[in-house]
Amino acid sequence: MRLNAFKKWALIIAGFIGVSLLLGFLLLLGMYYLTRSVQHYSACEVIEFTVAGDTFRVPPNYIWSTRGLMGCKAEGVNLHAAYPDMLPITKEESASPGLGIEITFVIGERGPNSVGARAFAEQQGFWKRAQPEVFHDLWIWTSSVSEDRLYVMPKSEVYDKVNFSCSTDGSVPYPSCRGFYNYSDDIYFSFSFSFSFSKDYLTDWQLITDRLAALVDKFKVTDDLIKEEKEENNAVKQ
User: Fold this and answer.
1) Measured between alpha carbons, how far is 190 from 52 in angstroms, rounded to an integer?
2) Is the backbone peptide bond immediately before 175 cis, with ω within 30 degrees of 0?
3) Long-range contacts of 169-174 (CB under 8 A, 24+ apart)
4) What rounded mean pLDDT belongs to the chain?
């Protein structure tokens, strides 16, 4: 009996040690790949990703999180810039309450069922339901779905490719706005970008969207750039 009990406890202890070693190995393996990802990320001159057939190269200091990064490439990332110069901003620099001067944005593909497309379609319906209020050079509607949201659209038809929704004052500690900007006209092969900023800057909406569009232009890999890189590579090989 004593021998059987001893064997039983020996098996239990051995199993416990085996499980502990396995968990330790998995933990070390996870830390290795995490560290490797961060090292790759910090060593990258640019992070590259493709949206609707267009390639973008973004300096890593516009990116806070390494999640989703595969070496120096990504499927898509959240980007952060400081308004009004649109320079990179660190997470520590934006740690003050509210979004402040930070603009957060993401570049994504636009399609008939995308969030941005639905937002535009929803706003077109507002014209049929209610007369909007005027705020500077913007139309503003109160949402029929949520009293905590305001829908905003520029009065000028020149800016019919951008719209916003904003938190109402008092609904949250730091009201902010979320915008959608249709960067391309072709709905099947196009991309847009959504962005958020403090409601305090709503009157600067035109400057914000123009400077964001210019920043996206700067990140985009053009045919001329590809041609130039090929010529440089050929020159090096020779």
Assistant:
1) 6
2) no
3) 169/199, 171/147, 172/148, 173/97, 173/98, 174/97, 174/98, 174/99, 174/198
4) 74
Same domain, residue pair 116 and 69? yes
**Are 8 and 111 members of one domain?**
no
Q: Which residues of 180-203 are buried (b: 16+ CB within 10 A; e: fewer)?
A: bbbbeeeeeebbbbbbbbbbebbe
18 and 123 co-located in one domain:
no
Looking at residue 25, its amino acid is F
What contacts 92, CB < 8 A, 6 or more positions away? Answer: none
3-state secondary structure of 203: helix
CA pair distance 8, 11, nearest whole angstrom: 5
Q: Is the pLDDT of residue 229 over 70?
A: no
